[in-house]
Amino acid sequence: MDRFEQTTLFGxxxxxxxxxxxxxxxxxxxxxDSEFDYLVPDKLLPIQTGQRIEAPFRxxxxxxxxxxxxxxxxxxxxxKKFKLKTISGVIDKEPLIDTGLMELARWISDYYVCxxxxxxxxxxxxxxxxxxxxxxxxYVYLAVSPDKIDEAESxxxxxxxxxxxxxxxxxxxxxxxxxxxxxxxxxxxxxxxIPVKNLAEKQIVKIAQRTVLKSLPAIPEGLFFKQExxxxxxxxxxxxxxxxxxxxxxxxxxxxxxxxxxxxKTELYIRAIDEVLKNGKSxxxxxxxxxxxxxxxxRFSARFEKIAVMHSGLNAPQRNTQWQKIKAGEANVVIxxxxxxxxxxxxxxxxxxxxxxxxxxxxxxxxxxHGRDVAIKRAQMCDAHCILGSATPSLETLQNCRTxxxxxxxxxxxxxxxxxxxxxxxxxxxxxxxxxxxxxxxANHLSDVxxxxxxxxxxxxxxxYSNFIFxxxxxxxxxxxxxxxxxxxxxxxxxxxxxxxxxxxxxxxSGRAICHYCGSQTLVxxxxxxxxxxxxxxGLGAQRLEEELAERFPKARVARVDSDSMxxxxxxxxxxxxxxxxIDCLAGTQMLAKGLHFPNVTLVGIISADTSLYxxxxxSNERTFQxxxxxAGRAGRSAKKGVVFVQTFLANQPAIQFALKxxxxxxxxxxxxxxxxxxxxPFWRLALITLRDRTFEKLEPAAxxxxxxxxxxxxxxxxxxxxxxxxxxxxxxxxxxHRLQIILQAPQxxxxxxxxxxxxxxxxxxxxxDNIAIDIDPVDLL
Length: 782
Ligand code: ADP
Ligand code: ZN
Ligand code: ZN
What we know:
By secondary structure, the chain is of the alpha/beta class.
């Protein structure tokens, strides 16, 4: 509340804003799927949509925070019979959400079947709502005009009070703009705040309060990107001409920029932004979180002056600073991860979504929106252009280019810049080297590379040390207590290498078994809890890879990069060391596959190309293809020829074969056949309903009731929707919650939408369960 009060004290001038009606409509953050009308007392007027308020809510009348989503609400006769409650305060001085973003939030709420209040809550960073890094400061100024001040001063009695008035007169503090900060005034006048308060009571001075936010830089020091002025090659020029042509129509359109890694896509984003800024408009660049490296950020900040960044590496005050900067119109380019799609930029002319196929654009908590799709929607709402960039575009986007060609068009960048050769791809059939983690062919090549002073990246898409801890005699596998998944062994750092357990199975020593879903940890027992025989580990993890490298290449300087070992600054330090040649080989998870440019890397090894193929998800082929293609792009980013080794137990798998040949079109054609045959995206739409509860006896009837209700709605509306389930989710228990799923398939989004509109309006199913999650266009079905 004090945020509002301070504005009435200081610099509050809202006379230019039209006074609003006394009834407003509120969407609460707590996730109730409807909006409520409230009275606003006169003293809290005017109020604008997009401001947060606090009001008594539910039967308990507990104060809760909600967004004002409509003012001047007129009520129908029936509505008038209900007595309205009154809001108790206004939280924000200015609306956090402007009308454009409010419209976007409504669309998200509608399309993704999520309460509006939750969408709004998620579209403003928590740091902004908390006012992170903001400090309140008190200011003092004279409440008497210069022509009357002599008279007023003569009435002041106390010596200290006189001193205060004199100081204020000296600094000409006659209004809020010229006010003197309280503490400064006190030290200058040599007094406590009592004389000032006395003067305030006599209405000779005014004490005001305002919020100040210490400005914090958000672009970390790091690798310096050397900025060379590049001359666009022919393909780039053609692509740019096509894009700017469309930008300059001032109408909404989407361009898919399909270009292999290193084909100069980023350079084109920059040029397209230039064009948009020239027209006096602004731009947003979305990147997957892990691609928001210092290198990438610096590349953009070297080219644009008024840039703001938003990613998870920032602390709360930095985030707040960046957001306020955007809101105040001090930035015209925003670069950030998924949620930067909500950046409060005015006059948006362009949204770029780099690596548009990335599953991480989908948020896995409410609101379960897809960053790319929201970007397209936002662009449409502001008549802006949208560029989707990728070396391996999603099948959804390709399909849009085919079926909505009036809006979506493709531009190709088929070659790497300066005609760099593509790396040579070598398949290693691991059935021949079953007991090895690094096969002999890869190891031999690695030692060659290291002896030439070149660098290598080895990629293993799995954290930890191994993925099963298992008993060879009774076949018992250690599982998480809370979830239906196996535990992953994480070795305690600093263990001597000769104690390393191997795939073939030496016994493990010191370390912890960690669940990657709930994070719970246990010490690993020396003996099997069931039969007391020794335990063994199977599977592989990035940590084990690092150790095997240390064993086989004792002279090589190896560093591991994954989310376990990398915390913010460390990550940048390792990358800098690698870039400067102080590290020879990076071993790690997917983090390494993105956004890095290292010219001296001539070898990339994918330790296991199969990991995602074992997941029971219809997109696993697509993911495998993308992973191999992406990683391949890391090798040979210079005149030196690169080699990529792909180790796999599934050498004949089509996704792997196509990826090895770099045959994107072939892969797409093959994959689309399967998708069409099974009514899967990109042809049909999917929705996933996941119900969870600790008590299975409650969960099952609830899931069945949900199914019945869905069937009834389908029959009623004669909707073309296929329903499967309820069935146990692939991970049937997480954090002690059982999970049942219902999968829906519809040929058109509009049909799915109709189904959910009806479900949303109908009374809740019984028995009530802990949670029902609705995921529209899910990216995985786990
Ligand atoms: P992508 O985003 O497709 O991976 P980038 O735009 O990052 O490609 O380009 C890869 C590298 O080539 C970068 O170092 C970039 O500065 C450089 N580059 C881009 N276009 C050109 C060009 N026309 N001539 C020379 N270098 C270029
Ligand atoms: Zn768990
Ligand atoms: Zn056992």
